[in-house]
Amino acid sequence: MRLRNPDRIIEVSGPRTVPDLLRSLEIVPEAVLVIRDATLLTRDEELEEHDELEVRPVLSGGAGGPGS
Amino acid sequence: MKCKVCRGHAVVDIRRHNAAFCTDHFTEHIHNQVAKAIKEFHMFGPDARLLIAVSGGKDSLALWDILLQLGYDVTGFYLDLGIGSYSTRSKEATIAFAEERDAKLIVRSLAEEHGFTVPELASLTNRVPCSGCGLNKRYEFNRAALEEGFDILVTGHNLDDEVATLFGNVLHWNTDMLARQGPVLEERVLGEGDRRRMALVRKVKPLVRVAERETAAYAVVRGIDYIVEECPMVEGNVQHKYKEAIAMLEESSPGTKHQMYFGFLKKAASRFADETDAANLVGCANCGSPTIAPEAGSDRVCSFCRMQSLAQRRRDDGYRARPVRVRKRR
Ligand code: SF4
Ligand SMILES: [Zn+2]
Ligand SMILES: [Zn+2]
């Protein structure tokens, strides 16, 4: 499956779910959104091998808060 | 998953609410959470003139959209920090957002107002960019609100921001900061009689009930084209490390963030009541902004003016500043 931002291709075997994917990337689900075809995916969504996904980080880190 | 309200296809799940929502009902859910925070903490009434500090990022643009949708009179304020192409792009995103919605927007630039960008200030004063940046933002947001006659300054701090700040303040027992950690910071007035004037405008954080993942999701479902990239100067900032650690706790025990922040407000905040009472505040001799009354003999100058004059002095002396590293965190 293809991941965007940064763009990369990862191998998956068979359909998996969003949590499976995030676990294999060692990403905490609470810290990202998973987007397919401009649509957000909930945790139970099944993924297909030809899927193009964006795993978008959502936690920002500026000391000044917004403005960061 | 199915939407909790209509049983349609869900796009967002919120584990701490044990709920999932379709696009429309998620939007409604977020609007309700913001309306609830505004009411619960008596932030402002329906006719208040609001100024919202916007950065082009998800939180401030999402909140601006929410307040417009809820029918408030809210004007955007964008401060150009002069952080290279990051500032250029975030300014463009903010202007595009405002034009699309026909929303009022005020744009100012730090370099034009005071002569220094954030990277210049950091290298001239030898301080980490975020500390000077935070000081400048607080100062300029307040000044803009006062000059342009707004009642309230609104910021996009979300639940994760507040929890991470609280966590840091507890780790270091910054008791004076704990006193000022609530979702509302009251206005400060200086002077007596005819010379009485508003010095600090009231500040509110209507997103405190909304987690950061939810403000991002809101921006996506509403088609808000926010700047996903982070400020390049954020590297090494501890706030982000706290957030990651807290996200792991939230993951294994949903509701942790909400419990920590609202538990603090309910059970502990009053124990740290603000000690910097009005009597201790005086106007800065240079700019008039409130500052803690100095020890006898020292200058009555606020930290913003001190930073500006140090940078100015060093620039005049041809101080060879160490360049500030600009690098992505990852
Ligand atoms: S990350 Fe630091 S320097 Fe960048 S905008 Fe936020 S507070 Fe300012
Ligand atoms: Zn629904
Ligand atoms: Zn001053």
Task: Describe this entry's structure for a reader.
The complex is a heterodimer of chains A (about 70) and B (about 325). By secondary structure, chain A is mostly beta strands. Chain A has a single domain (about 1-55), classed as Roll (Ubiquitin-like (UB roll)), CATH 3.10.20.30. Helix content of chain A is about 10%, strand content about 30%. Chain A is built from one helix and seven strands, in the order βββαββββ. Chain A has one helix at about 20-25; strands at about 1-5, 10, 15, 30-35, 40, 45, 50-55. A five-stranded mixed beta sheet of chain A has the order 2-1-7-4-5, with no helix packed on it. Chain A has a two-stranded antiparallel ribbon with strand order 3-6. In chain A, β4 and β5 form a beta hairpin. Chain A is globular and about 35 Å long. The N and C termini of chain A lie far apart (about 30 Å). Mean pLDDT of chain A is about 80; it is low at about 65-68. Chain B has about 325 residues and is of the alpha/beta class. Chain B has a single domain, classed as HUPs (Rossmann fold), CATH 3.40.50. Chain B contains twelve helices and twelve strands. Chain B has helices at about 25-40, 60-70, 85-100, 110-115, 120-125, 130-145, 160-170, 175-180, 210-220, 240-250, 255-265, 305-315, and strands at about 10-15, 20, 50-55, 75-80, 105-110, 150-155, 185, 190, 195-200, 200-205, 280-285, 290. In chain B, the strands form four sheets. In chain B, strands 5-4-3-6-10-7 form a six-stranded mixed beta sheet, with helices on both faces. Chain B has a two-stranded antiparallel ribbon with strand order 1-2. In chain B, α1 (about 25-40) packs across α9, α5 crosses α12 (about 305-315) and α7 crosses α10 (about 240-250). The longest helix of chain B is centred in the middle third of the chain and has 19 residues, at about 130-145. Chain B is globular and about 65 Å long. The model of chain B has no long low-confidence stretch (mean pLDDT about 90). One zinc ion (ZN) binds near residues 5, 6, 21, 22 and 25 of chain B.
